[in-house]
Write a structure and sequence with these properties.
Type 1 dockerin domain; mainly beta; 43% strand; 7-stranded mixed β-sheet; binds calcium ion; 2 helices; Immunoglobulin-like; 11% helix; 7 strands
């Protein structure tokens, strides 16, 4: 799982290749270019790996001796572009073993991968819940009291002080505290700042 803008790597691996081992491979990997972009594809031992179009990388290559067991074929470096999930679909065009003079196809079970991009720590927009200076999403007498304490310099700040200036253009002062108190008591049903 990556955040948007974050980079990560995906390994293309071959598992449990029987003797004489994997020698030639051609594999296409497709992905969702809306979600991820491929920065580069690093092949291992005797292979080449390159992007094809906007939504695929192609891995191809051959080694004269086979690779038995598990091996890494390539490393694909990706970056998350959008929140979401991109499949990594593998299409095995061909896998051949290292039988000299007569490479035999290898049957392989394909395991597709997936990349999940989280939206990440996007900056939360500073939205106003007017009158609520202690961030509890309730406008109460406590909020009015906090404003009055700030105005009296008894308190340096409040967690959501930006919600306190309900009569704008004159800074935070005792009028704001009174308005918040009136709102909490139901005497007024909106603040001057909310008009227009
Ligand atoms: Ca509150
Ligand atoms: Ca004010």
């Amino acid at each position: 799982m990556l955040d948007v803008g974050e980079e990560g790597s995906v390994l293309l691996e071959a598992f449990s290749m029987p003797p004489p081992g994997l020698a030639a491979a051609q594999i296409n990997v497709t992905y969702d270019p809306e979600i991820v972009s491929v920065l580069q594809c690093l092949p291992f031992t005797g292979r080449v790996c390159y992007p094809v179009g906007k939504d695929a990388v192609k891995l191809t290559g051959a080694t004269s001796t086979g690779q038995e067991g598990d091996s890494v074929l390539a490393q694909v470096d990706v970056r998350c572009e959008q929140p979401g999930s991109s499949p990594l679909e593998l299409e095995v065009v061909g896998l051949f073993d290292a039988t000299i003079g007569d490479p035999q196809p290898i049957d392989a079970e394909i395991t597709d991968g997936k990349i999940t991009c989280a939206s990440g720590p996007s900056p939360t927009p500073l939205s106003n819940f007017w009158g609520d200076v202690d961030c509890d999403f309730v406008v109460s007498a406590v909020d009015a009291l906090l404003v009055l304490q700030i105005v009296a310099a008894l308190l340096p700040t409040a967690p959501c002080m930006h919600n306190g200036d309900v009569l704008p253009n004159d800074g935070l002062n005792s009028i704001d505290g009174v308005l918040i108190l009136q709102f909490s008591a139901g005497i007024i049903d909106h603040f001057p700042v909310e008009q227009g």
